[in-house]
Amino acid sequence: QKEVEQDPGPLSVPEGAIVSLNCTYSNSAFQYFMWYRQYSRKGPELLMYTYSSGNKEDGRFTAQVDKSSKYISLFIRDSQPSDSATYLCAMLDSSASKIIFGSGTRLSIRP
Amino acid sequence: NAGVTQTPKFRVLKTGQSMTLLCAQDMNHEYMYWYRQDPGMGLRLIHYSVGEGTTAKGEVPDGYNVSRLKKQNFLLGLESAAPSQTSVYFCASSYALAGGWTKNIQYFGAGTRLSVL
Question: Which residue of chain A comes nearest to B103, CA vs CA?
Fold first, then answer.
């Protein structure tokens, strides 16, 4: 079993929809959670990061962590065609010594 | 401030040829990493370095070598390329001077697309 599971998609939604992207994990030592966005033929870029449980909001993006369920989510409100990309979750354990990436979910926003 | 720069952007090799991929960062980061990204496999760590003059194996190190002679540069070498090494290679760096756990956030280059025929 992989430490981090992420549905590869592709996920296609109409412009303006709310998008929910998710990852599950098995290692309870993970304390720090990140979301990266990767446009086609580009490197991953950090989108958001959170520590422990709860929500964090940044503009149209909200990151949510549920440590009891070992489940993290990224919500995108009022989705735009420019949000079309692959989204990777990433996690660090409590000693912040080892980062694990999900395999990414490909998202397409239809105009 | 360029961040993480990778050269070359594209390369085609024949089986058995060798090549070196260069990664340069200008953020004074201590840690540097080499990943490969394949469809459905996500990012897999090849080798990493926690400082100048140090290297360590990651998840998939076989067939690759690395060197970190200068803090800002991290080189990935393929001594005898194989078709299984066809992939997109990403370099990343971390440990910003801001400190705290966020020092482990990794910043990526744009990637090198390598085809081995």
Answer: A96
Q: What angle do CA A13, B113, B80 make, to 5 degrees?
A: 145
Percent of chain A with pLDDT over 90: 71
Q: In terms of Cα–Cα distance, which of A2, A5, A3, A12 is closest to A106? A: A12
Q: Residue-wise pLDDT tens for chain B (117 aa)?
A: 679 999 999 999 999 999 999 999 999 998 999 999 998 778 999 999 988 999 999 989 999 999 999 999 999 999 999 999 999 999 999 875 445 666 778 899 999 999 999
Among residues 53-82 of chain A, which lie with CB inside 8 Å of chain B? none
Contact B90 A88 (CB under 8 A): no
A32 contact B CB<8A: yes
Q: What spatial distance separates the first Cα and last Cα of chain B, rounded to whole Å?
A: 36
The pLDDT of residue A72 is above 80: yes
**How far apart (Å, rounded) are the C-alpha atoms in residues A90 and B33?**
15
Q: Across-strand partners of B82?
A: none
Euclidean distance between CA atoms B24 and B22, whole angstroms: 7
- Which of 19-78 (B) contact A at CB < 8 A? 40-43
Chain B CB contacts of A96 below 8 Å: 101, 103-104
**Closest residue on chain A to B45 (Cα):** A100
Task: Write out the two tokens for B55.
Answer: 């290297």
